[in-house]
Amino acid sequence: MKKFFSSILCAALIMSALPMASVCANAQELGSPEESGTAVTANPVTSHKNDKLQWSDPNINGEIAIIGVTDKTNSEIIIPDTIDGFKVTKIADNAFINNQTITKVTLPDTVTSIGMGAFMNCKNLKSVNIPKNVKSIGIDAFRATDIRKIFLPKGLENLGSGAFQNCKSLTAAALPSTLERLENETFKGCSSLRSIKIPEGVKALVGQPLASTTLLSYGVFEDCTSLETVTLPSSLEKIGEAAFRNCSSLTDISVPSSVKKIGSYAFSGCSSLKNINIPEKITVINDSVFRGSGLKSIDIPEGVDTIGTLAFADCEDLTEVRLPRSVTNIAQSDVFPDLNNSFANSQNVTFTVYSDSYAKAYAKNHGIPFTEIGNYISPQSVSEFVGDVDADGSVTSADSLAVLRYSVGIIDLGDSQKAAADTNGDGMIDSLDSLEILRYTVGYSSEKIGTENKNY
User: Fold this and answer.
1) Measured on CA atoms in the order 93, 95, 99, 105, is the torsion positive or negative?
2) Is the pLDDT of residue 210 over 80?
3) Cα–Cα distance between 101 and 91 in angstroms, integer?
C-alpha cells in the first residue's frame, strides 16, 4: 500500500513540474535582446510551421523568431512581417545554416536581430537586405555565403565576429556610424573586397589572439587580398592583431593621430604596402607588425620605446628607418637571429639615428649601416640666446646643423628654438640662418647671434 501511494505522489509531482519546465524552455527560445547576436537558440523545444517556414512560439510581447524552412526547394525566401498575427522580429541562430538552395532572402523591417550562424554556409546566397531596424547581427551570421554587396543600417550596434568571413564574392560593404568596434574576422577572407571606409564613431578594429599566440591571430580584414583602399576614422584608437594581415594589394594607408595601439601582425604580409605613418601616441611597435611588408622607408616617432620581435623582418624593399632617441629596446637574439631580431632578413636597411641614442649602438652591434643626425634636441628645451638652437648654452656648429635638419623636416623644434634659429629675423628658418650661425662660430660678427632670445 505504501508503494502505491508513493507512486501516486511521484506522478503528481512530475505532472505539476511539467508546465514550469515548458515555460522555462519557451523563455530560453527567444533569449534576451541584450545578448550579442544570440537572441534565439538553434533548436527551440516547440515550433510551428506552414508550407514554407518554421517559427518559434511567441514571447510575451507576441513576437516570434524564424527558425527554418519547410520548403527545401524554394530558392527565394520572403519572410513576412507577421505570421498568424504574431510579429516576426528575429532570425534564429542557425535558422538557414548550410542551405544550398536559397539564392535570395528578403527580410521585413520588423526584424531587429539576426542570430548566430543564421545563414552560414549558404553558398549560393547572393542577395539579402538588412532591415533598417536591425540592431544586432550575430557571430558568423553570413559566413561563407555568396553575397555580393551589403549595406548595414544606421542603428546597428553589434556586428558579430566572423559575420561576413569568407564571403569571397563580396565587393562592397557600407558600415554605419552606430558601430563602436569591428570584431575579429568580421570580413576576413573577403578576397574580392577592394575598398572599405570605416565610419566615424568606430574606436577599435579588434584582433583576437588564439590562446595568446599572435601567430594565430584573427584579424578584421585579414586575407582580403584585393583590398586596395582603406579609410580610417579620427575616432579610431586601436588597430587590433592581424587587422590587415596578408592584404597584399594595399599600397598605402593613413593612420589617424588618435590611434594608440597597432597590434601584432596588423600589416604583416602586406607585400604592396609602401607607405604608412605611425601616430605619435604609439609607444610600442609590436611583434611582426610589418613583417613581410613592402615598406621602403619608415619614420618612427619620438615616444616609441620598444620595437618588438620580427617587427620589420623580411622587408626586402626596406632601405631606410629613422629611429628616435626614445627607443631603448629593439628585439635581438644572438642564438636565433632570424627568429627574433626586429629587422631579421631585411638586408637592405639603413638606420638614421641620433648620435647619442640606443639605436646607434644597436646598429653598430648588429652591423647595420647607419647615418647620424647629431644629438637629440628636445622641443621642450628653452633657447635663451639667438643662435643657441639646441639650448645647450653656447652657439656652435651643432646649432648650424640643427637649423639645416629642421629646414628639411628631419627634426622638430620648440617655439623658443625656432626663434633662436631665425638669426636674420626674416620669419623663415633656412640655410641662410644655418650659414650665419656657422660664420659666427669661426669668428664673423653678428648683430643678433649671442644676444638674448626675446622673440618667443
Assistant:
1) negative
2) no
3) 18
Residue that the C-alpha cell 553558398 belongs to: 123
> What pLDDT, in 10s, does the model give residues 311-330?
999 999 999 999 999 999 99
Half-sphere exposure of 175 (CA within 13 A, CB side): 26
CA distances from 159 to 83, 134, 151, 175, 184 (A): 27, 10, 13, 10, 10
Query: How does residue 208 score in pLDDT terms, banded at 50, 70 and 90?
Result: low
Q: Which among 128, 124, 255, 247 has a CA at the least distance from the CA of 194?
A: 247
Look at residues 177, 183, 136 and name the one whose alpha carbon lies nearest to residue 154.
177
Percent composition of the chain: helix, strand, coil (DSSP 3-state, to 5): 15, 20, 65
What are the residues whose beta carbons fall under 8 Å from the beta carbon of 208, sequence distance 6 or more? 161, 183, 184, 185, 217, 218, 240, 241
Containing 353, the helix (H) or strand (E) segment is strand 350-353
pTM for the full predicted model: 0.79
Look at residue 236 in the predicted model and tell me its pLDDT: 95
With CA atoms as reference, report the closest residue to 417 among 390, 441, 450, 448: 390
CA angle, 113 then 85 then 139, to 5°: 15
* Number of residues written out for the chain: 456
393 secondary structure, DSSP code: S
**Top-level class of domain 377-456:** mainly alpha
pLDDT at site 387: 87
**Tens digits of per-residue pLDDT, 168-198?**
999 999 999 999 999 999 999 999 999 999 9
Phi, psi of 2 (to 5 degrees): -60, -40
